[in-house]
Amino acid sequence: GYETLREHNPGLIYSSIRGFGDPRTGETERQGQPSFDLVAQALGGVMEITGQPDGPPTKVGPGIGDLFTAVLNAVGILGAVHHRDRTGEGQYVDTAMYDAMVSMCERTVYQYSYSDEAPTRRGNAHPTLFPYNAFETSDGHVVIAAFSDGHWRALCAAMDRPDLAAEYPTGSDRLAERETLREEIAEWTRTRTVEAVVDALDGAVPAAPVQDTSDIFEDPHVRTREMLADVDQPGADESVTIAGSPIKLSETPTGVERRAPLLDEHRDELLESTARTEDDGEQAHGDD
């Protein structure tokens, strides 16, 4: 384990991801229980606040219990590397899936702290901002986020409803009548296509179509940003498309250079490289 390895290398950075964390960083009775993304989302509060108000708790589509935990773990490793660069000291990095979901739902934590009321499902609506929602069109759905006073006036102008802008000029005014105003906006969007709504609001109001994956594949923005990458697929006669890297660096360009390795695919290569490094080190020490 970590302690044994650290005896041989005090600068070692040792990382783990578990459902409920490691006893070294806080021992609880949950540790040792099995966990998956679904379990983490359920325990961490994600499912309780996801879905329609009259529907059941709902899992978020992507495996955020896995993915977000891994991202936080990577950040922790970078922090440990920075600490080692300054002190020479390694350390153990522990990230728990349950902890990560609590962190992701941070807004519900402080809301409950203030009100003693547990936040629950609101569909696509926002608890404190309006309009901030998805709306049905004649051929799909769009999202509109016009909660600021300026965006609200622009939305009302696009809808040809200056009366709404005048009657509900502030955010608190709009929140108080959110159901009435939501229906006014929905009445406007449902008689228009997605393209017509987005074009009417383009540049003036934050709005977008609700896309599926085929739409993403056809979006030139995604292609230009290199967010789709083709890689070889072992055992198949054709390549597969995977998501590219969203991290863009000016001096050290990122991207998908190759597919993920198979289990033990590079084992011999890595062991040979390690052996050569050790041999070179011993030779240099002997020359000294």
Number of domains: 3
Distance between the termini: 34 Å
Residue runs with pLDDT of under 50 for 5 or more positions: none
What is the H/E order? HEHHEHHEEHHHHHEHHEEH
CATH superfamily annotation of the largest domain: Crotonobetainyl-coa:carnitine coa-transferase, domain 1
Q: Based on helices, strands and strand pairing, what is the structural class?
A: alpha+beta
- Total number of helical segments? 13
Oligomer: single chain
User: Roughly what fraction of the amino acids lie in strands?
Assistant: 5-15%
The CATH architecture of the largest domain would be: 3-Layer(aba) Sandwich
Q: Kindly state the mean pLDDT as a whole number? A: 94
Number of strands: 7
The top-level CATH class of the largest domain is: Alpha Beta
Outline: globular
How would you describe what is shown here?
It is built from 13 helices and 7 strands. The chain has 288 residues and is an alpha+beta fold. It has 3 domains: 2-115, Crotonobetainyl-coa:carnitine coa-transferase, domain 1 (Rossmann fold), CATH 3.40.50.10540; 132-210, formyl-coa transferase, domain 3; 211-278, no CATH class. The strands form 3 sheets. A 3-stranded antiparallel β-sheet has the order 3-4-5, with helices on one face. It is globular, with a radius of gyration of 26 Å.
